[in-house]
Design goal:
Distance between the termini: 40 Å
Shape: elongated
Bound molecules: dinuclear copper ion
Strand content: 15-25%
Strand order of the largest sheet: 3-2-1-5-8
Order of helices and strands: HHHEEEEEEEEEEHHHEEHH
Helix content: 25-40%
Number of helices: 8
Largest sheet: 5 strands, mixed
Radius of gyration: 29 Å
Number of strands: 12
Length: 339
């Protein structure tokens, strides 16, 4: 099929073929009906054009009214026609709806075994962090054949992560995490774009996704991604955790002034005043920047805000560390933690 599609980008991910097939189905259906309607329009305009000979306008009188009444009787015969042109488009659009929704769910739900990387958009660059601590700017290296999940945030305005060859595009929004996943099927280099106008140099907010054989990727990682080998995100987060004195309140025993963070990520947290919240990355991020937003049941709202004191990278490091607390204790997110 891809030979036919000379005008679409290369297909380099597990979903690319499905997205294209769906897209071409919609183009074919729309094209068919557009041509049909335009064709009939021209045909009828010619066939029933006003030749100027039959036009003698008269007021309706008795015979005309009878004729009109007789035509109205055709309404029953037209029922079949009415049903046909109602039901067929309905079925076609329902197919589009069902198919599109299924595809949307596939695209928006990362597989459980996906390897998580972090992406940060800022005016005007893409920053990526591998769990092992390797950082990249406007370049992303990933292994082929592996499900990759990107947890993304923005430092300023809305950006959009777009890799045409993977057929994935996802807004990157300040103040929250969004995610996107893909499984590259071919090694090579692919364009990465920002697909949301984000200021003067929006068009320059581009980069390259390099898909490598797993061995080559491991070697690349081990070499620190060509730069100095650093500490893992979780190690950096652990250091921050004590530097910022988080550890003085969030004791693992739960006896501190703040709740224990052991096994937190992935768990369900009871809140003061009733209600619960699923402790995902967005919740942890919010609790760091705006601690009063959701108070854990049994604790006082006394944590200071870290708004403006931590970069997005540092928050990601803290979250990576907190996730390992779950893993050590065999918490609910133990399987998800790759560190
Ligand atoms: Cu970032 Cu456009």
């Amino acid at each position: 099929m891809s030979k036919l599609l000379f005008f679409v980008p290369e297909q380099a991910s597990s979903v690319a073929g499905q997205v294209d097939l769906f897209f071409f189905f919609m183009v074919a259906v729309s094209g068919f009906f557009s041509l049909l309607i335009a064709g009939l329009l021209v045909f009828f305009a010619l066939r029933y054009r006003d030749t100027g000979v039959a036009a003698e306008r008269v007021e309706p009188h008795g015979d005309d009214l009878e004729e009109a009444a007789a035509h109205a009787g055709h309404g029953r015969g037209a029922m079949l026609l009415e049903l046909t042109w109602t039901v067929i488009p309905l079925l076609i659009t329902m197919v589009m709806f069902g198919w599109g929704t299924t595809l949307f769910f596939t695209l928006s739900r990362p597989p459980a075994d996906a390897m998580q990387l972090n992406a940060i958009g800022k005016q005007w660059m893409w920053k990526f962090q591998h769990p092992e601590g390797v950082r990249e700017i406007n370049e992303l290296h990933v292994p082929v054949g592996q499900n990759i999940k990107l947890l993304m945030s923005s430092e300023d305005v809305i950006h959009s992560f777009f890799v045409p060859a993977f057929r994935v595009k996802q807004d990157v929004v300040p103040g929250r995490y969004t995610q996107v996943w893909f499984r590259a099927t071919k090694t090579g280099e692919y364009h990465l774009f920002c697909a949301e106008y984000c200021g003067t140099q929006h068009s320059g907010m581009i980069g390259t996704v390099t898909v490598m054989e797993p061995d080559a990727y491991e070697a690349w990682l081990a070499g620190g991604g060509g730069g100095a080998a650093g500490q893992s995100l979780a190690q950096l987060g652990e250091r921050l955790f004590s530097e910022r004195a988080c550890n003085t309140c969030h004791l693992p025993s739960g006896q501190g002034r703040g709740p224990s963070l052991v096994g937190l990520i992935g768990s369900t947290v009871k809140l003061e005043g009733g209600g619960t919240v699923k402790a995902d990355e967005s919740y942890v991020r919010e609790s760091i920047l705006n601690p009063a937003a959701k108070i854990v049941a049994g604790f006082a709202p006394q944590m200071p805000t870290f708004q403006g004191q931590l970069s997005e990278e540092q928050i990601i490091e803290l979250i990576a560390y907190i996730r390992t607390l779950g893993a050590k204790q065999g918490g609910p997110s133990a399987a998800a933690a790759k560190e």
